[in-house]
Amino acid sequence: MLPLQGRSFWESSPPMGPPESLTRPRKNQAAGRRKRRPRRRLCLLKGCEQRFHPRHARQRYCSAECRAKAEKWRRWKAQQKYRISDSGKQKRNGQSRRYRERVKSRKLPEDEADNEATRVITKEDFFRAHLRPARLLRAVRAAAAKSFTALLFARLPARRGASSGARAALETGAH
Question: What is the pTM of this model?
Answer without folding.
Answer: 0.38
